[in-house]
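Protocol step 4 of 6: record predicted structures for both targets in the notebook before any analysis. Target 1:
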Amino acid sequence: MNDNLHTFDPDEINLDNHPCFNKEICHDVGRIHLPVAPKCNIQCNYCNRKYDCVNESRPGVTSTTLSPGQALAYVEKVMENRGDIAVVGIAGPGDPMANVEETLKTFQLIRERFPKMILCLSTNGLGLTEEIVAELAKLKVSHITITINAVDPEIGANVYAWARHEKKIYRGERAGALMIERQFQALRWIKEHGMIAKVNSIVIPGVNDEHIQEIAKKAAKIDADIMNCIPLLPTQDTAFEDLPEPDAKMRFRIRMQCGEHMSQMTHCARCRSDAVGKLDEGLNDEAANLLQVCAQMPLNPHEHRPYVAVATREGMLVNQHLGEARTFSIFGIDPEDDEEFVCIDQREAPPTGGRTDRWLDVGNMLKDCRAILASAAGPTPKRILKKCGIEIVEMEGMIDAGLNHIFHKESLPPSFARQFESCGKGVTCGGDGMGCG
């Protein structure tokens, strides 16, 4: 092992309290999955990510997504009501490594607030680099799961519709080969940094069910700690929706074969990306409501941001694209009537041009605002302003409707909602085309 590696010290945290890795305590302690990673870098032929189905229990499903700050607030609120939570994990609903900044920030916030909490990560492994693994080790992320479905590129080609790596799309056997190479290299880094590694493999009848044992053999050579053979859950609107779910005989055979090489997990609950509680608990109404409350908080709930900025021409309607706004009207709650709003300021926007720097200037100018209401906004300002703790709400219509949405959690009327497509399309912008670059 490289002496310069930052490795995880297992003596710092009680690692035995992870219910997925220790069957003996799975009925005594619980976990929270934080849905802070909506984007994904691959498309598996068994996966259909739905964000709004509270009645399904499977990976990739969540009722909403959270910012890192909202996720911390959610954990704090859950911990106020429960004393059995031992693990905080990130497992989607996309892939954490397609959302690296959000993932690392969330772990950082949780580690600072809950220094003895077990932290874990579940990923497809494609986006894991040695630098990221080292950063995870510094944050004392102790358990990492990689979902590996093949060690043969030809079989991998049947599992993955595509994989995106370094802005390039791979398909077919090239996608399969890329996934295998990246996944096993990631496993090596994980073990070099002293972390516990679990391999998940989805058992897909007629595709890889005769091949899972080869995954176990190869993972065992890298000293992966445990394997979870998860039976396919046929899901509507996927390429594998008509395949049968593996029966008990197939599941037993595969676990026996793989058990010759690695310890096997046999109590998997196929958890949602927003799972909370013990493994046998579903997402109950109380947890679902709490999750929604936290999702409607400011992006950084612990900051004092009492105002909302509005891109408006006359002060009544949200009717300007973010890039064309030359001033922002600043609204807050009326101190004499918390059901009313008042305009407390008019602020000039920074000059157009400047690209990234302009949006950093906007973020600094609006650091007391939790959100901006605009008729549309491009991806660059959205990304930069989100880092500044400012949510962009795209809408057109009465300002009060947007303010009620932000301050009082009222639903935005569907006729008011807008979604940016691209410059010159969908929403008319009178700007010069430079401000949203």
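Target 2:
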Amino acid sequence: MRFSADRPLNVQPATVRDYREVARRRLPRQLFDYADGGAYEESTLAANETVLEKVLLRQRVMKDVSIREQATEVFGQKLSMPLILGPVGLAGMFAPRAEVQAARAAETAGVPFVESTVSICGIEEVAEATSVPPWFQLYVMRDRSYAEGLMARAEAVGSPVLMLTIDLAVVGARHRDTRNAMVGTPSTWAKIRRGLDIASHPGWIRKVAIGGKPLTFGNLAEVVPGAKTPEDFKEWVDAQFDPSVTWDDIAWVRENWKGKLVVKGVLDPEDARKAVDAGVDGLVVSNHGGRQLDSVPSTAAALPAIAEAVGDSTEVLADGGVRTGLDMVKMLALGARAVIIGRAWAWAVAAEGEQGVGHMLDVLRADADVALALTGNNAVTDLNNDSLA
């Protein structure tokens, strides 16, 4: 693929991985590695993709598949296909007002967008740019008044779903960020290296660093004074993630949130049953994209047992390693109602903005359509273990 980092693409990316390669060249390394990397040796990050690739579809022939339907319903909301753009922190550093661009692409495609607590664009900005309110992702912090304020803001813009991330009692070590001096106290040489990294990407400077201002945390400006940069925010985060949180705290969330409540970060069937007992409306089978505890199961490996453990008592979503529409179909056959993607849309928005995210979604939809037809299914709601070889 040939392109200049500062010019429009002259070759249309055909896959999510094509967008990854474009993003790798267009972004300063420290930002690309932040989005692309995982925890420790990144074995779980890799397993999310490799295990899913090894799941085989069952090809069926001579069935009437002239009608194929990808529409589904999640938490009472109709989706044009079983896919959600998940929360991505600092996304607005990848493209100018990236969260707004991605939310618009999601609305056009008929799928939800989830606003991250640590987005660059605030939830009000995203909501004003679209006619369908975004879902909102929340971390449980020691400062409960901060969290309550964010829930009130999400409710005020009409967010229908709160996605509570529960796998961040402590933060896993992400070695790429350490090497790039994104965490810790950078040495003088590390600061010089970071500066050279940024200086070597004039297109990013012009379009994002200058054209995408303000590069501050839109959801935190009022409650975390001084959180102007990733380094500022990191210090606050280290003091705020709460390792004392238990399932009993779901009741506190319920007191402050009247919409649908989903917990994200479940990998164990016993925890899935506890989530149901706590009264959540749904759960996300997730290992945080391989960014937290390394050497845990991939989501594709963990999903079937969790889906079986909760049955129809709650809606099960899944993320991790979804790079194609075939991956989406596999996840549904393994037991998910819908899948959530994060890196995929981050790469696409970094490469080609709203247009890139829209095209990436079209590619996934087309992939899934072929998979439906050649597995002998007429609708995504028909997918189950019988669709797997």
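Step 5 preliminary note on target 2. Residues 16-382 form a domain with the TIM Barrel fold (CATH 3.20.20.70). The first helix runs from residue 16 to 26.
Proceed to step 6 after PI sign-off.
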